[in-house]
Model the fold of this input.
Amino acid sequence: MKSNTAAPAKPRKSLREWAKSMRGQQIIVTLVFLLVPLLLLFTFTYLPFFKMVQFSFYKMKYIGKREFVGLKNYIDVFTRDDCFSALKLSLYYMVGSVVQMALALLFATILSFKVKGSKFFRGALYFPCLICGISVGFIFKFFFTHGFVLDSLLGFLGIPLESCPYWLKDESINNIVLVACSVWKYVGQNIVMFIGAIASVDSTLYEAADIDGANAWHKFKDIILPSIRTIVVLNLIISVSGALSAFEMPYVVTGGAFGTSTYFVVMDKLAHTDQKVGLASAMAVVLLCLIMLVTAFQKFVQKKLEDAENKPVKLTVTTEQNTAARASSATPAHK
Done:
C-alpha cells in the first residue's frame, strides 16, 4: 500500500541566508555590475540626449525662460544661410573621406607584403593619429599662413611670394586645404585597420593566384577587396560620420572664418556664443538623423552587393552549342 503522507516541505530561506548562498551572491554581483554601468550610461548619454531633443522644440538660452516653438528650429536649420551652407560644406569632407579611404587601401596593401622598411612606414603613417587634433591644427595654421613655412619652401623652388595664394583666406582653396589636413591626420587609423584585415586573408589564395599568373591588381580586386569588405564598409561609415562632424581643423586653423565654418563650428557658435540652445539642439538632432541615413544607405548597398555576389550563375547554352554537343556525343571515338 502506498503511504498517503506527503513529503515534508523544504523550509524557506530567509533573505539573509539567500544572500549568503552561492546562487544569491552570483545574482547580486551580476546585478551590481550591470546596474552601475547602465546607471552611468543613462545619466551621461541617454538622459542628455532626450533633454537635447526636448530643447530642440524650444526657443531658449541656458538660463532664462523657454518658449515652445514647435518645428521652427528644424525649419531654420534648412533655411538659415549659415546652417545650410555649413551642411553643404560637409560635401568637401565627404569627398576627402573617399580619398582618405583610397589612400589607406593603397598604403595598407603595399605595406601588408614584404616591403623594405615597412615597419618604419607603418609607424610613420600612424604617428599623426597619436597627436592631439588641436596641436595638428596649430601646426598647419603656421604651415599655411601666408609668408610662413609653405611659402618659404616654395620660395626656395623659385616661386615668388607674390605668386603664392592665401591658402587659408582664399575661399576657392581653403576648404580643400583643411580637408587635406584632416586626411593627413586620420588616414593612419584606416591603414592600421586595413592592414589587420588583410593579414587575416588566407595565404593559399595568393599562392593559387600566382600559379594562375594573376598580377597585383587582380590579387587586390579578386582576393583582398572581397575578403575585407566588412572592414571597408565599417571604415567608410566612420569616415563619413567624421566628415559630417568635422570640427577641429576649421575651428583651430581658421576659426571658421573665410567660408570654412563646418556644421559643428556653426553649432558651437550658436550654442555658446549666441546662446541659441534650441536651434543648436535641432542642428544636433538633424546631424544624428543624417548619420543614421548614411549608415543605413551604406548597409543597404553592402547587402545588395553581397546578394549579387552570392546569386547563383545560370549557364545559358545556345542552340548551336546544343547541336554541336549532340553531334560530338553521337560520333564514335577513333581508336
Summary: The chain has 15 helices and two strands. Confidence is low (pLDDT under 50) at residues 313-321, 327-335.
